[in-house]
UniProtKB/TrEMBL annotation:
<dbReference type="InterPro" id="IPR005467">
    <property type="entry name" value="His_kinase_dom"/>
</dbReference>
<dbReference type="InterPro" id="IPR003661">
    <property type="entry name" value="HisK_dim/P_dom"/>
</dbReference>
<dbReference type="GO" id="GO:0000155">
    <property type="term" value="F:phosphorelay sensor kinase activity"/>
</dbReference>
<keyword id="KW-1133">Transmembrane helix</keyword>
<feature type="transmembrane region" description="Helical">
    <location>
        <begin position="21"/>
        <end position="48"/>
    </location>
</feature>
<feature type="transmembrane region" description="Helical">
    <location>
        <begin position="68"/>
        <end position="90"/>
    </location>
</feature>
<keyword id="KW-0472">Membrane</keyword>
<keyword id="KW-0418">Kinase</keyword>
<dbReference type="Pfam" id="PF00512">
    <property type="entry name" value="HisKA"/>
</dbReference>
<keyword id="KW-0902">Two-component regulatory system</keyword>
<dbReference type="InterPro" id="IPR036097">
    <property type="entry name" value="HisK_dim/P_sf"/>
</dbReference>
<feature type="domain" description="HAMP">
    <location>
        <begin position="88"/>
        <end position="140"/>
    </location>
</feature>
<dbReference type="GO" id="GO:0016020">
    <property type="term" value="C:membrane"/>
</dbReference>
<dbReference type="InterPro" id="IPR036890">
    <property type="entry name" value="HATPase_C_sf"/>
</dbReference>
<keyword id="KW-0808">Transferase</keyword>
<dbReference type="InterPro" id="IPR050736">
    <property type="entry name" value="Sensor_HK_Regulatory"/>
</dbReference>
<keyword id="KW-0812">Transmembrane</keyword>
Length: 370
């Protein structure tokens, strides 16, 4: 006996088959059922079955249309959600960068851009943070410079005013020592203004007239200029000989200025009867100049700041000796303008050794230090 499967037996057991499996199973069941009825009842059922097949086609078309509409709607919603998420992902970091720019425009250099977003936006945030840090450092330096200038100028002006008021009120007589003291304060102001002018020019960019120069000639010229000052204080200046093959590629006037500043600094910190040594040697592609003194030395915690403007290890002593506090800063700028380096080695009670390097001319033979 022929066995016929029912419509329910051909329906998928669960939802795992999906809508497509369900439709295929239903269609197959209907076709089998109608075939079985034809075999039993003959041609009398053809009109009825034809009408049933037409209804089945309409049902399948309706289900397919609904499936298409639901799939399209879900796809549209999913795409819209992704678009909104991507827009927020890109817009928020840009808004934060815009807020940071507004803060910088308003003078808030302590503000920083938070990290986030795509790689390009993170790189832009890093650049803005670096710019903000530089502006913050520059602003602090400007404030420190104004404060230091006020103090440096106020001290000699107050001294001058005291002497002049004393002369006017009769407290001081018309004594040459009083006028000499006034002259010293005026000279101190002149030195300060001159150093400030040099510092401003050095920081703005030094114009160099570089040429091959003999190291020994540069050292001897600086020593001759400083000799009267050393003799007046009773300090011995030694200019050690160097091989004639030792040359540098530099601006002669600027190098002599560097040596003069270092010799003047050594003289201020060396007691009478002491000794200052000037020497040079070949140092791995550069020429290294060195000024060594027999002064009180520099504590280790001050070495990293010794080339900052207006920085003094002992402010009272430096002002009394006539130093402006920016000579070493000028020296650093001049050396770096040549592409060289400058540094110091010192221990308290053992003197200091200031050194700087200058490039050697290409194609000239150099010798090593003994």
């Amino acid at each position: 006996m022929t066995e016929f499967r029912t419509l329910g037996a051909l329906r998928p057991a669960g939802r795992s088959g999906g809508v497509r499996s369900y439709l295929l199973g239903t269609l197959a069941a209907l076709i089998l059922a109608q075939g079985a009825l034809l075999m039993i009842f003959g041609d009398a059922l053809l009109p009825v079955l034809a009408h049933g097949l037409g209804s089945l086609t309409e049902v399948c078309q309706s289900l397919a249309l609904r499936t298409l509409l639901w799939s399209g709607g879900l796809t549209l919603l999913f795409t819209a959600g992704i678009a909104v998420g991507m827009s927020a992902l890109l817009t928020r970091p840009i808004q934060r960068l815009e807020a940071h720019l507004e803060a910088l425009r308003g003078g808030d250099y302590r503000a920083r851009s938070p990290q986030g977003g795509p790689r390009e936006l993170r790189a832009l945030a890093d650049g803005l943070n670096d710019l903000a840090a530089r502006l913050e450092t520059s602003e602090r330096a400007r404030g420190a410079l104004v404060s230091d200038l006020q103090h440096e100028v106020a001290t000699p002006l107050a001294s001058l005013r005291g002497y002049l008021e004393g002369l006017e009120d009769g407290v001081f007589r018309d004594d040459p020592e009083v006028w000499a003291a006034c002259t010293r304060q005026l000279e101190r102001l002149e030195v300060l203004l001159g150093d400030l002018s040099q510092l401003s020019a050095a920081e703005a960019g030094v114009s160099l007239r570089a040429a091959p120069l003999e190291a020994q000639a540069l050292m001897q010229a600086a020593a001759r200029s400083a000799a009267p000052l050393f003799a007046r204080k009773g300090v011995i200046l030694e200019c050690l000989p160097v091989p004639s093959e030792l040359w540098v590629h530099a601006d002669a006037a600027r190098v002599e200025q560097v040596l003069a500043n270092l010799l003047s600094n050594a003289l201020r910190h060396t007691p009478p009867g002491g000794r200052v040594r000037l020497q040079a040697a070949w140092d791995a592609g550069t020429v290294r100049f060195e000024v060594a003194d027999a002064g009180e030395g520099i504590p280790r915690e001050h070495l990293s700041r010794i080339f900052e403007r207006f920085y003094r290890v002992d402010p009272s002593r430096s002002r009394a000796s006539g130093g402006s506090g920016i000579g070493l800063t000028i020296t650093r700028h001049l050396v770096e303008a040549h592409g060289g380096h400058i540094g110091v080695a010192s221990e308290p009670g053992q003197g200091s050794r200031f050194w700087f390097t200058l490039p050697a001319p290409a194609g000239l033979n150099q010798v090593s230090a003994p």
